[in-house]
Design goal:
The chain is built from 39 helices and twelve strands.
Length: 980
C-alpha cells in the first residue's frame, strides 16, 4: 500500500489525549491536569513549543502528586508531541515508557493508547512487523473495556493493523480489521474522523487491487464523514482523501479528473509545508505526465518525490520513485543510470520489506541487463520476478476479498441473531424473576430500601465530587494568580524604584504613574477572579467584627478623591452616621463592594459631573447609595449589569467582573443590591445587615476588633541605614527564586550593600547555604523540585544553617499559607508583588535583630543557650561548642583549625556559623573564652599572672597582658589589686 493514513496521527496524538483520566486522583489538582491537556489540544497543527511545555508540566505535576495514571498519560502526551514534530526516537521512547507504566498499574486504557501510537510510529519508519505486533497488543488491551474512549482506541488500532498489513501486501489480513471497525460503527456511530479513516484505508486496499470504482466509492464515503468535522480542519482531510481518489482516477485513465484533484491537493499541501504528502502527490503527477506523453515533466515530479521521500525517511515511497526514475532512464537508453536508481530502490526496500516493490525492482533490473547484453542474468531476474508475482497473485484477488467481506457480513448477522436470542431468553428469565419477586413482599420491601439507600449514597458521593472539583478550581485560580503576580512584581518594583527618584521630568513621571496604576489595576483584576472563584466554591467565608462605619466608609471614599480630581469630577458624601458608633460587618467584603461601586462611578462619569455617596443605618441595615451623573442605563442594561462579563456597549473597556463580584459579596453578606437609572444619572443601592444578631457565632470575630488586614506596618524610614561596606565586609545574602527575572531584580535591590548569591531552586539553595553559610536568605515558596517550605525546614533543621534568618517571598497570601511558612521556621513573610523599600526594611530588621542577639552572646561569660531564643539545632550546636571549649580551651596548641575539626565542619563554615550566631570568629571566641577564664582565676588570686596566662592557653605572658587589657580596659596586675 503506497499511502500513509496521515490523518490518524493527529487523532491518536491529541484528540484522545484531551480526555481526562482522573478517576483515581484524590486531590484538587485534577482540574490543573485537565487544563494542561486542553492546552496541548489547542496546539495540534502546527505544533509550537507550547504543547511540549504543557506536556512536560502535566507529567511534572503528576509526579509531584505520585499520580501513576497521570505520569503514564504525561509520557503518552510527550510521545504524541514528539511524533508530530517528527522526532521519532523520542516519540518511541515516551510511548514505550507509557506502555510499561500502564501495564504495571493495570491501566489498560493507557496501555492500549500507547501501543496504538507505537504501531503508527513504527509504520512511519517502515518497521511493519513491529507495527503489526503493537497494533495487535493494543486491540487485546482495550477489547474488554466498555467505555467510549476504549471504543475509539479499538477502532483506530484496527485501522493501524490494516494499514501495516496492506503495506506488506497481505491484503486478506488487511481487510478484516477494517470490517471490524465498520461493525463497531454500525452498533454505535464512531466519531466522523475515525470511521472516515477506516473508509479511506478500505478504499486504498481496493485501489491496490485495481478495483477502482469500489475504491472511489469508499473515498467518497470518507469525504462525506470528514465534512461533518469543524470547518477549520475539513480542507486538510478532504485534500488528503482527494490524493487517493486522484490516484484511482489516474489508474482508471480518467486523466482530467485525476489532474484536477491531484494538482489541487499538491497546491494545498505545498502551502501547508507537508512535504510527505507533497512527495506522494508528485509521484502520481509523474505518472500522469507519462500518460500525457510528457517525460520531461514526469522526470521532474519523480525527482521531487524521490528527494522528499528519502529526506522524510520513507523507504517504501522513495523506492517507488526510484523505480519510476529507472524506467525513465531505460526509455532514454541509459541502462547504467537506471541500474543506479534500482540499486538505491533495493537498498531502500531492505528497510521497507515490500514484496511488490521487490517484484518491480527485479523486472526492471532484468530489462537493464537485457539492454546491456547480459541475457542470462536478465533471464534469471525475470524468472525470479515472475515467481514472486505468482505468489502474490493468490492474495491479490478481488473476488476472494469480496468473498471474505460477504462471509463477514453473514457472521455479523449470525452474531446479531444470537444476540437477539440471548436478549429474548434474558427477558423471559426476567419475567420469571419478577413473578417470584411479586410473590415475596418482604423481598420487594428490602430491595426498595437498598435501592433508596444506594441512591442516597450516590448522591453523597456526587456531592463530594462536586466539592472536590470546586476546591480544584480554587487551587487552579490560586496557581494562576501566582503566575500573574510574579511578572507584576517585575513591573511594579522597578516602577516604584523609578518613582522614588526625584529627577524625572514631569512627562516621564506621569508615564510612570500611569504604568504603575495599570499594574495595580491588573493586580485588582486577579484578586477579583480569585474572589469569584472562592465564592463559587464556598470557601469565601464571612468574618464580621465591630467597627465604625463612618470612619471605614470615609477612608474608602477618600481614596478616590485624587482620581476624581484628575478626571475633573466632584465626589461628595452624605453620611447619616455617628463616628463613635460601632456596627458589625465584614471589612474585606464591604471594602470590595465600595471600591467596585465608587470606582465604576468615577470611571464612567464624564468631566464636570459629580459622584455622590450616601450612607445611613436604618432598622439594623446599612443603606448605601452610590450615584453618578452624566450617564444613563436603559431597561435592558439595568437587567444585565450584574451578569458576569457583561459590558455596557458605550463602556466596553472594563472586564465585566467587578459588578458581578459585588452582587455575590452583597448576597454573601445577607444583603441586597439593585440599580436605578433615571434621566442623566445612575444609582446603585445596597442594603446590608450590620447588627450582631444577623450573624452566626462562626461568622463573628470577637478577638479581632478594630484590627485591619495589615496589622504589622513597617516604616522603612525608622530602620537604620546600612552604611556602605567594603565587599569583603558586606553581609552575605542568598536569593532562592526559580523565576530568573525576579531573582535578578531582587539582586539589584541589594547588590550595593550586600554580597549577593543566587540559586534557582530549593535543593541548589540548600547546598549553597551549607557551603557558604550566608547572613540572611530570601526564598520564593512555589518552586520546582523543592519548594520554599521544604527548603526552610531543611535549613532550620541543619546545624550549619539553623541560625540564618529566612524571609519567604511569595504570591500565596492566605493566612494558612503564612502560618505554614512560619511553622517551618521562616522569620518573615512578604507577599508578591512587593515594594522594594518594604522588602529592604524587612531584611534590615531581621539583621538588626541578629546583631542584638550577637551583643547578648558577647556579654555572656559562658554560653547559656536556654536563656536566649534559639532553635533546637542552635541549642545543640551551642552545647557542643561549650563542651569543646571546656575540654580544649586551656590547650595552647588548640588552634582555630583544630577547633573546626572538633566541631565537625570546615574552618570557613565554623567561622560563618559563629559570626552569624554569636558575632565573632572562631579565633576571637577562643581568645575571649580564655580571657574570661583568666579573669576568674585572677579574681581568686591563687597563682601568678604568668602562671594563669599559661594555664588558660597563652604561650607569651606579655601577649596575655596585652590581650587582657584590650578586653577589660585594665592590666592583669591592676585587676588583681582592685580585686584585693
Amino acid at each position: 500500500m503506497k499511502s500513509l493514513l496521515y490523518i490518524c496521527c493527529l487523532f491518536v496524538g491529541f484528540s484522545l489525549g484531551a480526555q481526562a483520566q482522573n478517576s483515581n486522583l484524590k486531590t484538587q489538582d485534577s482540574l490543573l491536569l485537565s487544563s494542561y491537556k486542553q492546552k496541548i489540544a489547542q496546539y495540534v497543527n502546527p505544533l509550537p513549543d507550547s504543547a511540549l511545555y504543557y506536556a512536560r508540566n502535566y507529567k511534572s505535576v503528576a509526579k509531584d502528586l505520585d499520580y501513576d495514571i497521570g505520569i503514564a498519560d504525561g509520557d503518552y502526551l510527550l510521545g504524541a508531541c514528539y511524533k508530530r514534530i517528527e522526532k521519532i526516537d523520542s516519540a518511541i521512547f515516551h510511548f514505550q515508557k507509557s506502555r510499561e507504566l500502564s501495564q504495571n498499574i493495570q491501566y489498560d486504557l493507557g496501555k492500549g493508547r500507547a501501543l496504538n501510537n507505537l504501531s503508527r510510529t513504527y509504520y512511519v519508519i517502515g518497521k511493519m512487523d513491529s507495527s503489526i505486533v503493537s497494533a495487535k497488543e493494543a486491540i487485546e488491551s482495550v477489547i474488554p473495556i466498555e467505555n467510549p474512549s476504549a471504543k475509539l482506541i479499538l477502532a483506530d488500532s484496527y485501522i493501524a493493523l490494516s494499514t501495516a498489513y496492506a503495506r506488506k501486501n497481505m491484503m486478506k489480513e488487511a481487510i478484516e480489521p477494517l470490517l471490524l471497525a465498520d461493525s463497531l460503527h454500525r452498533k454505535s456511530p464512531l466519531r466522523p474522523d475515525i470511521i472516515a479513516a477506516a473508509y479511506q484505508a478500505l478504499g486504498s486496499i481496493y485501489l491496490d487491487l485495481e478495483e477502482y470504482d469500489s475504491a472511489v466509492t469508499q473515498f467518497e464515503k470518507a469525504n462525506s464523514e470528514f465534512s461533518k468535522l469543524p470547518e477549520t480542519v475539513v480542507p486538510f482531510y478532504l485534500n488528503t482523501t482527494n490524493v487517493f481518489m486522484g490516484k484511482a482516477f489516474l489508474e482508471n485513465d480518467q486523466l482530467i479528473k485525476a489532474d484536477s484533484l491531484l494538482r489541487q491537493s499538491y497546491s494545498y499541501f505545498t502551502k501547508a509545508e507537508d512535504f510527505r504528502l507533497v512527495a506522494e502527490i508528485a509521484t502520481y503527477l509523474g505518472q500522469l505526465a507519462l500518460k500525457k506523453n510528457d517525460p520531461i515533466q514526469a522526470n521532474s515530479f519523480y525527482e521531487e518525490s524521490y528527494r522528499l521521500h528519502k529526506a522524510s525517511e520513507r523507504p517504501y515511497e522513495a523506492g517507488l520513485a526510484a523505480i519510476e526514475l529507472a524506467n525513465l532512464s531505460l526509455s532514454k537508453n541509459q541502462p547504467d543510470k537506471a541500474l543506479q536508481f534500482l540499486n538505491d530502490a533495493e537498498s531502500l526496500n531492505a528497510e521497507a520489506q515490500n514484496s511488490r516493490l521487490r517484484q518491480d525492482i527485479l523486472f526492471s533490473k532484468a530489462e537493464v541487463y537485457s539492454l546491456k547484453g547480459n541475457y542470462k542474468l536478465a533471464f534469471n531476474l525475470s524468472r525470479r520476478a515472475k515467481k514472486l508475482q505468482d505468489s502474490l497473485q493468490n492474495v491479490q484477488n478481488a473476488a476472494q476479498i469480496k468473498e471474505i467481506e460477504a462471509l463477514y457480513e453473514t457472521e455479523s448477522r449470525d452474531r446479531e441473531i444470537a444476540l437477539l436470542t440471548s436478549q429474548n431468553e434474558l427477558a423471559a428469565q426476567q419475567k420469571k424473576n419478577q413473578r417470584n419477586l411479586f410473590a415475596a413482599g418482604l423481598g420487594v420491601t428490602t430491595l426498595a430500601g437498598l435501592f433508596f439507600f444506594f441512591q442516597y449514597r450516590n448522591r453523597q458521593k456526587t456531592t463530594r465530587k462536586l466539592k472536590e472539583l470546586d476546591r480544584a478550581k480554587s487551587t487552579f485560580f490560586a496557581n494562576i494568580s501566582h503566575e500573574f503576580r510574579t511578572p507584576l512584581t517585575l513591573i511594579k518594583g522597578p516602577l516604584e524604584d523609578q518613582l522614588e527618584r526625584q529627577q524625572q521630568q514631569d512627562a516621564s513621571r506621569k508615564n510612570l504613574l500611569n504604568a504603575h496604576r495599570s499594574a495595580e489595576r491588573l493586580e485588582r483584576l486577579v484578586e477579583q477572579l480569585l474572589a469569584l472563584s472562592k465564592l463559587e466554591s464556598g470557601t469565601f467565608s464571612l468574618h464580621v467584627q465591630p467597627d465604625s462605619l463612618y470612619r471605614f466608609l470615609s477612608v474608602q471614599v477618600e481614596a478616590f478623591h485624587f482620581l476624581a480630581a484628575e478626571q475633573n469630577i466632584t465626589i461628595t458624601t452624605d453620611f447619616n452616621l455617628k463616628e463613635e458608633e460601632l456596627h458589625w460587618f465584614d471589612r474585606d467584603a464591604l471594602e470590595k463592594i465600595c471600591v467596585n461601586l465608587i470606582g465604576n462611578a468615577c470611571k464612567y462619569t464624564p468631566e464636570k459631573h459629580s459622584v455622590l455617596v450616601e450612607a445611613a443605618v436604618e432598622k439594623g441595615f446599612l443603606q448605601l447609595a452610590v450615584q453618578n451623573t452624566g450617564v444613563h442605563f436603559n431597561e435592558h442594561q439595568q437587567a444585565k449589569v450584574f451578569d458576569r462579563f457583561y459590558q455596557v456597549e458605550q463602556h466596553g473597556s472594563g472586564s465585566g467582573i467587578g459588578l458581578a463580584l459585588t452582587k455575590e459579596l452583597v448576597e454573601l453578606h445577607k444583603g441586597t443590591i439593585h440599580v436605578v437609572s433615571e434621566a442623566n444619572e445612575i444609582t446603585f443601592r445596597v442594603a446590608l445587615p450590620v447588627t450582631q444578631s444577623y450573624f452566626s457565632e462562626k461568622e463573628q470575630l470577637h478577638e479581632q476588633w478594630h484590627l485591619s488586614d495589615d496589622t504589622e506596618i513597617i516604616q522603612p524610614e525608622i530602620v537604620p541605614e546600612v552604611e556602605e561596606l567594603l565587599l569583603e565586609d558586606a553581609p552575605v545574602l542568598l536569593i532562592v527564586e526559580d523565576a530568573r527575572d525576579v531573582r535578578e531584580y531582587i539582586a539589584t535591590i541589594f547588590e550595593s550593600s550586600y554580597k549577593v548569591i543566587t540559586a534557582e531552586q530549593g535543593e541548589e539553595g540548600f547546598s549553597i547555604a551549607k557551603e557558604v553559610v550566608p547572613d540572611i536568605i530570601i526564598s520564593d515558596v512555589m518552586m520546582p523540585i523543592s519548594d520554599g517550605f521544604e527548603f526552610t525546614h531543611k535549613c532550620k533543621s541543619h546545624q550549619l544553617t539553623s541560625h540564618i534568618p529566612i524571609l519567604l517571598l511569595t504570591a500565596k497570601g492566605k493566612t494558612a499559607d503564612q502560618i505554614e511558612g512560619l511553622e517551618k521556621g521562616a522569620d518573615a513573610y512578604v507577599k508578591k508583588p512587593f515594594s522594594p523599600k518594604l522588602l529592604k526594611a524587612r531584611v534590615e530588621n531581621l539583621l538588626e535583630n541578629r546583631r542584638k542577639l550577637h551583643e547578648r552572646f558577647s556579654q555572656e561569660l559562658i554560653l547559656v543557650p536556654k536563656e536566649i531564643k534559639v532553635s533546637s539545632q542552635e541549642e545543640k550546636f551551642l552545647k557542643r561548642l561549650q563542651e569543646v571549649l571546656d575540654n580544649h580551651v586551656t590547650d595552647p596548641d588548640f588552634t582555630a583549625t583544630k577547633f573546626s575539626e572538633q566541631m565537625g565542619m570546615s574552618r570557613m563554615q565554623l567561622h560563618r556559623k559563629l559570626k552569624g550566631i554569636i558575632g565573632v570568629s572562631s579565633t576571637e571566641l577562643l581568645k575571649d573564652q580564655r580571657l574570661k577564664l583568666a579573669k576568674n582565676l585572677l579574681k581568686d588570686n591563687k597563682a601568678s599572672i604568668s602562671e594563669i596566662g599559661y594555664m588558660v592557653g597563652f604561650n607569651d605572658p606579655s601577649y596575655f597582658s596585652k590581650c587582657f587589657k584590650q578586653a577589660f580596659g585594665t592590666a592583669p596586675s591592676a585587676y588583681v589589686e582592685a580585686s584585693e
